[in-house]
Structure formats: structure tokens, C-alpha cells
Amino acid sequence: MNDVYVVGAGQTDYGSFPRESYRSLFKEAVDTAVDSVDAEFDRESVDEAYVGTLGVGGRQLGLPGPAVTEFAGLNGTATTRVENACAASGVALRQAVLAVRAGVADVALAGGFEVMNDVSSERTGEWLGVSGETEWERMAGTTFSGVYAQMADAHMAEHGTTREHLSRVAVKNHANGAKNPHAQLGFETTLADAMNAPAVADPLNLFDCCPTSDGASAVLVASRDAAEELTDNPIRIAGAGQSSGRVGLFQRPTLTEIPATQRAAEQAYDEADIGPEDVEFAEVHDCFSIAELLAYEDLGFCERGEGGPYVASGATEPDGERPVNLSGGLKAKGHPIGATGGGQVVEVFKQLRGEAGDRQVSGLSRGLTHNVGGSGGAVAVHVFEEGWA
Question: Is pTM beyond 0.85 here?
Fold first, then answer.
């Protein structure tokens, strides 16, 4: 099996950009990824491209992949659109990894885009709803925040998780996002403000919820031979895991676990020959604050039910034992659905190369990304390590 390396990664700012199109955003992300490659990079060397998008607003539901790769200077490149809701570009990355491992491609591009702020909030809510179970949840009136509110309520009842535990996720990620120039909500907040924000779907309030975002991301991966021509500072993808789960909450035996995360993580850990205790830092899918606490537990960073005390202990702060969401996460950096998984890789790429600016944590050599579709219907987990194998 061929080793796979990240040789370049880039993203746009996340936010609301009425003067940009989905094509221009994706091109900016690809341009930034190409610029990040240490050696001169020829776009014609890209053999395969995998582009994630949900298609919010329905502007280009057919052939969005070729539409953006052509605009980004990759005309003629074999391009595949990947749709796995919010996990789209995390899964796109795994497809690129598999193509290089199989010898189908020497160089592949994975990324994604989404434009979410050029339609009304009501329509955005409808598009977010299609990522959940349609027949028995969305059509019955359940919103996406309502789904995660049920998970938070169950976690509180079963494990004693508190309002303060949820808010500490928001405070930490906003503090990190305030140091990220790409962040949509790049400001800090206090614990008091986070705890007393207006309710959205009880027990979740405004500071428990990520924003809707426009943005794009792009990651360039290469075989060992190709990577040696492109960089002296490689980042190896040591493990790539993916799993699916039941789309509807009512179909699951528990509301307080995401089994697809557990299976995807086990696969990624096995490939990397590590355990969760070896992960030094992580970018996890915190679409809602409860999602980050569930990720701690499902990824094995703490015991079941201990996600709340774990964040309260400071373990996931930048100076803690395992920093989580140094980018600000979905909560502060933003969540352009199809781009989110690729954007997580951008942060890990920068941290491992010592290029993360004011939010750089020194001495990191192994990181993880965790990208969730819906409330757990699809999950991609990747492990990254500094240096050659």
C-alpha cells in the first residue's frame, strides 16, 4: 500500500460573501493550496479530484465538481462530486487517499465548498434539514438544532453533563477562533455570556450552535515519489477511517453516542498503529457544543460520560494535554458544509508544519481530524504525522 502525504492545503475565509460565487471561492482555496506547496506545482499533475458539497440552495446540483475544478484551472481532470452532508470533504479526502494508495493517482485533490448565506434563513434551515432523517424527523418538524438538543438533553440526564460544560466548549473555541484570521466569528466570549445566551432549542442556546457559512477548502495529496519532488516538510496521512451510521436518531439504541465515529476512529487508529492516547491534538466536528463532548468520548480521549468534566479540566485548551479545535472549530471558524472537513485538514497541516501563526502550539507531531455528516450518518477520521514514514 502506497504511503500518502499532504503536500499543500488552503482555504478561504469563512463567513458571508455576497460578491463571491461558489466557483470563485473554490478557486481561491485551490490557489492557496497550490501556493502552500514548497516546490513549483503544475496543476496538470493532478490526476483525480474529489469535491464535497451538499448543494445548499440548489444552484448547481448536477456536476458541481467539474464546474469548480474547470474554473480553478483543472479542466480535464477526472472529478467526482462527493455528497455526505457535513462530512462531504472529509470523505472526499479519504477517496483521494484511496486513489493514491491504489496507484490510480500520483497526485490528487480533495476539497469542498458551500454557499449558505444567499438564501433566507428559512430555506437554509430546510437545506440543513435534508442532512437528517427526512420522513420521520424533518417532515415531522424536527430541526437540526432540535436533533442535537435531544442528544444534549439525554447526555445531561445519563451522565450529569451541565450547562457550564456545554458553554466551556464555546468559550474555548471562541478564544482559539479569535487568533484565526479565517474565522467567521473571530471574537472571544465569557463563560457568563455563553451560559446566558438566548435559547435556540433547549438545552442548546445561541453559543452552543455554529454559524452558517460560505467558504471553500482544498487539500493536495501525493504518493511518496511525487511528494519527494514537492516538499522537504511532508505530512503523512497515517490513518484514514470512514463509517456510516443510522441517519435517524429514533433508529439508534442510544442518543449519547455516535457509533460511526467509534468505527471510523478504530479504523484510522489501526492503520496508524496508534491508540487515542497517542493523538496530540485534534480538529473535531463541533457543529453544536454537545457534539464536541460526544467526540471526546467516541474518539477515546476520555471515558464514556466524562466529556463534560474533560473540557472543564482544561485538557483540550491550547496548553492542555490534548488541544482540540485550535482553529476555533466549526463553532467559531465557521461551517460551510461541503468545505468543513478540508478546512480541518488545513489547520492540522499548518500546526504540524509550524505555520499556524498566533495560535501555533509548539512541538506537535501527530494530529487527527473528525468530520461528521448529519447527526452521525457518515463520519471520516484521519490521522496525520509529521515527516516521512
Answer: yes
